[in-house]
Amino acid sequence: MNQNKSLYHAVLHLGDNALILGHRLSEWCGHGPVLEQDIAMTNISLDLIGQARMYLDYAGKLTGENKNEDDLAYHRDGLDFKNFLITEIPNGDFADTIARQFFFDQWNVLYTKALMESKDETLSAIAQKAHKEVSYHQRWSSEWVVRLGDGTAESKEKMQRGIDDMWMFTGEMFTQTDEEKALVAEEILPDAAALKAQWEEQIKRLISDATLEMPTDDFMQSGGKEGVHTEYLGFILAEMQYLPRAYPDAQW
Predict the structure, then answer these.
(1) pTM to 2 decimals?
(2) How far is residue 89 from each of residues 20, 86, 153, measured CA to CA in Å?
(3) Nearest to residue 12, comparing CAs of 219, 183, 156?
(4) Given Cys at both, which of 174, 176, 177, 210 links 196, Cβ 3.0 to 4.6 Å?
(5) How do the domains of the chain map onto residue ranges?
(6) Could you give the count of Cα atoms lying within 13 Å of 143 in the half-sphere of its Cβ?
(7) Is residue 68 exposed (0-12), middle (13-18) or buried (19+ Cβ within 10 Å)?
(8) pLDDT band (50, 70, 90) for residue 233
(9) Per-residue pLDDT band at 1 (split at 50, 70, 90)
(10) How far apart are alpha carbons 141 and 245 in whole angstroms?
(11) What's phi and psi for 27, nearest 5 deg?
(12) Alpha carbon distance 37, 42 (integer Å)
């Protein structure tokens, strides 16, 4: 496999994660449980979309076809998206959103820290900027898991349900394609599988602090990086891509 094509797919995956999760969180704007958290989720959404722009801009350059982040965000079909399935799951209630963000943030903070050591200078630079933002995301979602889990009977029940429902989507974070394994060997990408033990240790500690129970189900959903998605991605893209597709020549 051509290294440039492999790197393109890997960068696209990182950009798609940030883009789709950023879009999901943006749906909370104006609907948060309290104003402060409404603003917090909106700011995290903006952080993720900013990261998506950096990744997708780099991916566009790797195509050699003069594409930019808008081309890749708005003019690809669902089968071409490579995001984790967890990023496209609907928001549900506040606890569901926190559970989804919690699992992803714990992975993302470890991954971006490792990615800063990439031999690819562009990826390293993106990771250095993203890691500062992701560290805040991790702290925010972790604090809310503990607050809800160790709160009222109702908040505890909802937080446990959110953790249990999102668990099946976490295994995908530590699987690697053959292309990614080759890039790991070349020290361009971190070894995601090697991050799993540290991720699980953090998850267990925080879930214990929240007086919640660790999920025990071994069944995991996967396929996002191969273009196999839930039905929800199509609805996201229909909304997100409508204007650029309907008016392809429009300019700001």
Answers:
(1) 0.96
(2) 10, 5, 25
(3) 183
(4) 174
(5) 3-246
(6) 8
(7) middle
(8) very high
(9) very low
(10) 34
(11) -70, -15
(12) 8
Interacting residues of 27 by C-beta distance below 8 A, sequence separation 6+: 91
Rg, C-alpha atoms of the chain: 18
Question: Cα–Cα distance between 20 and 17 in angstroms, integer?
Answer: 6
The tokens for 52 are: 């998506």
Superfamily covering domain 3-246: Ferritin, core subunit, four-helix bundle (1.20.1260.10)
**Burial zone of 216 (CB within 10 Å; 0-12 exposed, 13-18 middle, 19+ buried):** exposed
3-state helix vs strand vs coil in the chain, percent to 5: 70, 0, 30
Query: In this structure, is the dihedral angle defined by the CA atoms of residues 242, 248, 250 and 252, taken in order, positive or negative?
Result: positive
Q: State the pLDDT at residue 190.
A: 97
The answer to whether residue 231 scores a pLDDT higher than 50 is yes
Identify the burial level of 181 via C-beta atoms within 10 angstroms of its C-beta, where 0-12 means exposed, 13-18 middle and 19 or more buried: middle
Q: Which of 45, 211, 227, 197 is nearest to 106 (CA)?
A: 197
Burial class (CB in 10 A: 0-12, 13-18, 19+), 197: exposed
27 vs 213: CA distance, rounded Å: 29
Q: Is 13 within 8 Å of 226 (Cβ atoms)?
A: no
Rounded Cα gap, residues 59 and 6, in angstroms: 11
Length of the chain (residues): 252
Mean pLDDT confidence for 29-40: 94
Is the CB of residue 31 less than 8 Å from the CB of residue 38? yes
Task: Write the pLDDT tens digit of every residue in 97-126.
Answer: 999 999 999 999 999 999 999 999 999 999
